[in-house]
What does this fold into?
Amino acid sequence: MAERSFVKEVEKLRLGAGETFHGEGILAITKALLQSGVGYVGGYQGAPISHLMDVLADAQDILGELGVHYEASASEATATAMLAASVHYPIRGACAFKSAVGLNVASDALANLASGGVTGGALIIVGEDYGEGSSIMQERSHPFAMKSQVWLLDPRANLPSIVQAVEDGFELSEVSNTPVMLMVRIRSCHVSGSFETKDNRRPTMTVAEALETPRRDTNRIVLPPASFLHEKEKVEKRMPQAVEFIRSRKINEFFGPQGGKSGIILQGGMYNAVIRALQRLGLADVYGETDVPLYVLNAVYPLIDDEVIAFCEDKETVLIVEEGQPNYLEQAIASMMHKAALDTRILGKEMLPMAGEYTGQVMLDGISAYLRAHAPQMLAAQFLAPNASGENALAADLAKVVPGRPPGFCTGCPERPIFAATKLIEQELGPHHIASDIGCHLFSIMPPFELGATTMGYGLGPASASAFNAPDAKRRSISFVGDGGFWHNGLTSSIGNAVFNQNDGVIVIVDNYYSAATGGQDILSSRADNRSKSTQHPITDAVKGMGVKWIRHIDRTYDVNKVRAALREALTTEEKGPKVIVASSECMLNRQRREKPLAAKAIAGGERVVKPRFGVDEDVCTGDHACMRLSGCPSLSVKTLDDPLRDDPVASIDHTCVGCGNCGEVAEAAVLCPSFYRADVVHNPGRWDRFMDGVRRGVTHFLQSRREKRRLTFIEA
Amino acid sequence: MATRSKKQSDQKITKLAVLAVGGQGGGVLTNWITDVAERNGYLAQSTSVAGVAQRTGATIYYVEMCPDTGRRPVFALSPAQGDVDILIAAELMEAGRAVMRGFVTPDRTTLIASAHRIAAVSEKIEPGDGRADGPTVHENARQAASRYVAFDMEKIAVEAGSMISASLFGALAGSGALPFARESYEETIRASGRGVKASLAAFGMAYDRATGVAAPDAAEPAAGSAGKDVSVRGPDRLVAEWRRLAGRAGAYPEPVAAMALAGLRKVVDYQDLAYGADYLDRVDEALALDDAGRGHALSTAAAKHVANAMCYDDILRVADLKTRTAREARIRREMSVGDSNVLQVTEYFHPRIEEVCGTLPAGLGRFIESRPGLAKWIDRRINRGRRIRTDSLTGFGALWVIGTLRPWRRGLLRHQVETAHLQRWYALALDTARRDYALGVEILNCRRLIKGYSDTHMRAHSKFDRVLSGLPLLEGRADAADWLRRLREAALKDEKGDMLDGALKTVATLEAA
It folds into this structure.
């Protein structure tokens, strides 16, 4: 079960011709796929595509009714390879994943797919995770399109444009026998809006029909001599077909007046921000009517040379708005000017920053700098000489006060105790080289744990420690990999590699029952029953199957002592070869989502339910915060006591505590203070519960009052 | 050539950003805001950044809206500096972050902020008090915003049994920053269908606060205020003796009296009245060296820290505190345990040989401590985590019995060790105060460093010693007290004392200079 449910919203996918869809970008994309007669879809989760995968999973019934095959692919490479179904068969297929990381993984399949080309439309929806909120290295998807010769659409960020791009993308793919990438930026995936819907279309050929009538064509397979022909075909046949389609279908758009001495060429995804900058400069209205000519590239690769030249030839200068680096569009357009012997000056990264997100302010600064320098007559006086005091004077003051708030482990996260145990074992055995991986567990690199030296890619944690295999060294490496990364490719690239190369390191597989970082999607080792996927394949079995001899399974990660003991043994045992610890406990976010409503219902229904929560005896706590240096849990915080004798705040646990046990376990394992207690509140206690409670409280109250009668007791009013 | 034509349409886009901490329910609030806008004939667009990056971290939601005229406006997807009409911050530091990022400007921004704090990890892990300075944020926010609506919306939400999204929504409605009627906001909540009653209650309370109908919270008691009312109960003989001691403390000049009263309560509660008398004797020593001209800083610090030093944390104290009626009542209150519920309480202990020896009569304790082999042998048998159920008869009984050892505390090893330490430190402080008053006060204040149990306690002691190791280098300098204070503050910054080591090196170079 994913973190977010779209069960209700997917009903909107049934809307027919002439109706209006209201909702989020990811749902609109799904609707567009169905309207386009897609035959199969797949993909791999990862922001901003996670929710698209959740939508598809929740829409399985609707997909099934239309004869559309849906797959939750094992990786982005799998998802892209799946598009091979469109090589020989006229079936439209689509896959989706996060980029640039997803494209990095997929590029082998992408290159092969692009070489042979496709018959049915093949659409790769890439969620560009660039800028604020991104959790990955900052790279562009653009060069993948260039190097594999696939076409890249970057539509304006509104639902009608995105839906249109999906439909155009399939046609473009079929017309040019080339897979098409459709790029959606992180915010456009979650942008709300509306568009007029069409009827869903059944695929012209289903995968079942294709299976029953197999086809093959040696010329479409990547092996010489066909592969040499593919390379020629790409430039001689497919590219011109694509260019012709993009031109004739008017995929790219022109806005604003014709002519003028200056203009802007921009990626479709930049349109809203460019218009906003122009609105703020008084050069565009609320509806996007602009005084500055715009050429909007909804297709950023290939470029349509004559469109570009026609836009530029009567202008003195043109600004290219292209987010990220290198500046491929700017280079290509400047080169076009040169070849066409035009003296239009192409500006881009001189006005806008080479790297980083083009936020509202960056865009405003860049465009106004451009217009001030090259079209000052367009600007009103206040923009010609802007106040230099635009500096935020308060920022400097606040920068000293406002703490950073990077992401971290959630309340009750089962990964926290694993890293608490790791920190404790380092206190015991000294610091180690620790290799991290992609996933929530990467938060270990942040305070309070600060564990982990590198992250090299999904499922590659142990692989990235593979060089550290020195039998004469006194210490072993420790590497982490999550269950998501393990199944993505860690099983072979990391575990298999460690077995084969007889790596002596310690590998910790963090098993939280889901692909948790991406929103709780099921994977092979998930414990949940999934109606259409096969789950409950233990990681320990897979690791054994790979040939690992030393395996320890911890089935409750909150047992800090046990995790520490397993690490101690793994780091000190005489046994050779990889030492694998599988640490399993369910992602608390998902567990709460599952259990909370059930518990509430059970309590309301009169059933006996025990709800745990932790507390701190504030008069026992000395305020040294040692517990927090082994936790960082959002529900464990500091509070000031109304006591003049105390200088430092004490620990305090708020009502969001889920009673995971970490506080108590850590206090015990690290020999911290005895101020933590667990309070189990029994709802709807049985007769025996109540009887025993009565007896116990009777006796304890007797003892308490006996003592308190003989001493002074201070009572705060 | 295009000439300047100021594009002006009658319409204006309203821009609203929400800065929240991941997990606060910013998505729900955003959906409500677009819903209420659409209910009022607006077109609205919301965006957010979902993904792992927002887990418990700072995150942004963004809404743009504009009256629906039948034409589609072009909305932006993220907020821009100087271009936000309404900024909702779901936590105080996020309000500060919004100002820092330039999203709050005096020409137009209504800043609606919940004044409560969610401490960031960096604030929590300092051994001292690492918390950010709230008043500075309030002050800057007030300066930066056109209007500043701030109160504790989390408290309102919790009181109503709802989430902060409901009280933020109420504050937005109450602020009047959007031209929508209260009823349409409430319709939106009703239409959302989940936890409607609680949400409406939180919404209403926050609405009243934002419109000024409801009175603001009574000011939080300032930390360190000693003015709370404490009554005493017990056998008449003890109460009478208490009154005498309390009278003695009360006769001290202010602010010593208030501190000494608090200290006296603490030590009497910890041990007995005779212990209280010892305490006051010690405070008297400081008072003898003190004078009003210096604000009685020395004796106030002595009253505070001597009380803390005398109430060292031992097993007896923990057992005593954990078996009191007041404690049980407090847990039942905090955990909202009703009469129909049963409460079970598990305590986490991890005794080691050190604690055991400390709780033995001094001679026996020392006998074991001086035989490492024996100590190790015992330690192996006791050193492990022990969970004690204080709602059970055996668990409660065990702690209660340990609590009965209290009258014999003075004979236990730990007491002798602690008392010796106290006396050395106190003598050093008072001795120094005779030559350098301010330095003496700072030596007293160094007691703040000693806290924690077991390893943490040992580390604290080592920091205490290291800070005081700077003394020989400092004595005689005019700014010695200031330097000692700096050393202490450095020691409270991190666990291992790296900052302290740096500061000590600086002190060493001072000497050379």
Q: What stands out?
A: The two ends of chain B are 71 Å apart (CA to CA).
